[in-house]
Design goal:
By secondary structure, the protein is α+β, with helices and mostly antiparallel strands. The chain contains 2 helices and 10 strands. The radius of gyration is 14 Å and the shape is globular. The structure holds copper (II) ion. Residues 42, 73, 133, 135-136, 139 line the site of copper (II) ion (CU). Copper (II) ion (CU) binds at residues 42, 73, 133, 135-136, 139.
């Protein structure tokens, strides 16, 4: 699964709305972008937080993963729409200061629907979406996706 994550990342890039946000802090619909920084301890920490914990994201919001480390990382969903096709995948997020040292993913209604279906929770008000780094065993975190 992880070996193929690179290949899948490219497919994902071609197929979906993974966007590079430049330096703006506005999502495509004008909402606030949630920034999750990847630190040198390979933790995913929400901007302003002191430690890693699940990050709450409302449907429609955009998450930006910002790499503050000197090696590349990914944020790759454990849930797969089908084999080796993660629900979301940033692909490689380059080392800090390089081009593509951040990647954004918008958690739209389509993603909510897909996740709810995969988790078999059609009536849920929130969904727990775990994800991992495709390059480092044990590097993982989660998003709590909430229906407004
Ligand atoms: Cu990593």
């Amino acid at each position: 699964m992880r070996v193929l994550s690179l290949t899948m990342a490219f497919a994902w890039l071609a197929l979906t709305a993974v966007s590079q946000g430049g330096d703006k802090k506005e999502g495509s619909k004008g909402g606030k972008v949630i920034v999750i920084k990847i630190n040198k301890d390979r933790q995913y920490i929400e901007e302003g937080a002191k430690s890693q914990k699940p990050v709450i994201v409302k449907v429609g919001q955009t998450v930006r993963w910002q790499n503050d480390d000197s090696v590349k990382h990914t944020a790759t969903s454990d849930l797969e729409v089908k084999t080796d096709e993660p629900l979301f995948d940033t692909g490689d997020i380059a080392a800090k200061g390089k081009k593509k040292d951040h990647m954004e993913i918008t958690f739209d209604k389509e993603k909510w629907d897909a996740a709810a279906k995969l988790l078999k929770m059609p009536n849920a008000k929130e969904l727990r979406l775990t994800y991992y780094c495709g390059h480092h065993e044990g590097q993982k975190s989660e998003i709590i996706l909430k229906l407004k």
